[in-house]
Structure formats: C-alpha cells, structure tokens
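Hi R.,

As promised on Friday, here is the backbone we talked about, encoded as structure tokens. Could you run it through your design pipeline when you get a chance and send me back a sequence?
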C-alpha cells in the first residue's frame, strides 16, 4: 500500500438541504452525505469559500491506494489506531468503492 497525498486543502462542513451549492454544483463535492439535520459535504476550500459555506474542519486528503474490500474487517481500525497512537492525531475516514481516504487535520499531515 502506498498512500497518496493530495495538495488541495479540503473542508468538511454541514449545509442545509436548501443551500445553493446543492442546486448549482453538487458534482464538485468530494463527498456528499444527506442526513435529516442537513448535508455533510467535503469539498475544496476555495469552492467552499465561493459558495459561502461555513467551514467546520480544514484537512488534507490522503488516499490509500490499495483496493480495500468491504469485507476487510479491521483494516481501517488498525490504520486509525496506529495514527492515533504514534502521531497523536484523529482523522476522518471516507470509504469509496475502490479506495479509502483519510482526512487529516490541516497542519497534522
């Protein structure tokens, strides 16, 4: 496995279902998850600023380039535990079909 770091600064934020971003540019989101309280969105910081999205969490994205199976129980737990233990950082995880992505707090990458 070779982690691949991205230079873009991303944000994690929550926006209401009625936010103009959802009508105008949802394809720009790295991730969009709808919940009853609103939508959690991960997107590039510059685009969040453009759309007036209140930033909650600034981060950098690292992609784990191994194709991880949804059946691989404990894979991500082992990675996040090691990061917490050795580097003393907490991260947010996003799992895609082919890869897992670590959202590392800005300045801790």
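Update: got your reply. Pasting your designed sequence below so it's all in one thread:
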């Amino acid at each position: 496995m070779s982690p691949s770091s991205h230079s873009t600064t991303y944000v994690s934020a929550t926006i209401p279902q009625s936010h103009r971003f959802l009508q105008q540019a949802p394809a720009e989101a790295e991730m969009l998850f709808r919940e009853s309280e609103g939508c959690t969105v991960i997107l590039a910081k510059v685009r969040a600023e453009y759309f007036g999205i209140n930033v909650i969490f600034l981060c950098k994205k690292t992609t784990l380039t191994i194709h991880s199976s949804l059946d691989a129980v404990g894979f991500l737990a082992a990675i996040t535990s090691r990061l917490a233990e050795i580097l003393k950082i907490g991260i947010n995880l996003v799992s895609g079909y082919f890869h897992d992505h670590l959202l590392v707090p800005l300045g801790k990458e």
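One thing I noticed while checking it: The chain has one domain: 3-105.

Thanks again,
M.
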